[in-house]
Amino acid sequence: MAHSRAPTELRHPGADRDCPRCKGTGTRIARSGEVAIAISCDCLSVCPSCRGTGLVAISNAFRARHRRCVCQVVMARRRAFDAAGIPARHSGSTRASFVPTGRHQTAVVGAVSNYLKEFNPEGDNRGLILYGDVGRGKTHLLVALLRELVFRHGVRARFVEFSHLLADLKSGFDVGRGMAALIDPLVDVEILAIDELGKGRNTEFEGTVLDELVSRRYNAVRPILATTNFSPGGGGAAVSNAAAVQVGTEERPGLATRVGPRVYSRLRETCDFVEVQGDDYREQRGRP
Ligand SMILES: [Zn+2]
Ligand SMILES: [Zn+2]
């Protein structure tokens, strides 16, 4: 595998380098209700660099100056991870815990690794869309990517499940909050990860929300990462009969049909599309 020059996850100076539970970083991921959160590993002791003050003196012949200790940067990244809203069921989803079911899936992990390697926290970045049938491990890979963007690069990110997002926005809209106020936080984050893009009933409201969200992120040059069960391209009916699609009696709609031509063309322009094939991941792992 190609050597990656991307920064590795920062380690807390008070962590035990040989700790197997946190791999020497001092941070572990736990579950709290519906979301995954970052916590201190048991191996952590008082930071030897700053003695817990959070500041490290920089020797200078003329005056005493201080900089923020790396342990404080680690804590800030943990808070960023908590704010990302990664689902609790994916608290263990990392690149290392992803088990490829074939050569194709190994290549997909390679594409994700490459994205991380190429990511420039100071510059503009492209988006990434993982598409393919249900149960191929797309969400696992999306979460793994998001997690490393937060811990390696300190990126501010949000994970949203598309249909939950729409339901939240709809209830906010119904109690009189404006569209802009609802969407602002999702435009402001550096990385927005949308799980199951295109899933939903495809109502006019949903179309408007998605158009607003994608247009505003497009104008702000902020990338979108996503998973979708729909293939690139059009075809099929905009509102599909799910049962008919399952038994294959109806043409399965493409992503362009599901999200509309305007949104689709912006995604095409700004994102790389990577297909995730392979044996059914959930079936193989004995999950429902
Ligand atoms: Zn540890
Ligand atoms: Zn410190």
Q: Strands, helices and their partners?
A:
Elements: E1 27-32, E2 35-40, E3 55-58, E4 65-68, H1 70-84, H2 103-118, E5 127-131, H3 138-153, E6 157-161, H4 162-174, H5 179-188, E7 191-195, H6 204-219, E8 224-228, H7 242-246, H8 255-259, H9 261-270, E9 271-275, H10 281-284
Parallel strand pairs: 5-8, 5-9, 6-7, 7-8
Antiparallel strand pairs: 1-2, 3-4
- What is the CATH architecture assignment of the largest domain? 3-Layer(aba) Sandwich
Order of helices and strands: EEEEHHEHEHHEHEHHHEH
What's the N-to-C terminus distance? 33 Å
Strand neighbour order, sheet with most strands: 6-7-8-5-9
Going by helix content, strand content and strand pairing, the class is alpha/beta
Number of strands: 9
What small ligands are held by the chains?
zinc ion
Mean pLDDT equals 88
**Count the helices. How many?**
10
Number of domains: 2
Any low-confidence stretches, pLDDT <50, length ≥5?
239-245
The helicity comes to: 25-40%
Q: How does the overall form come out from the CA principal axes?
A: globular
CATH class of the largest domain: Alpha Beta
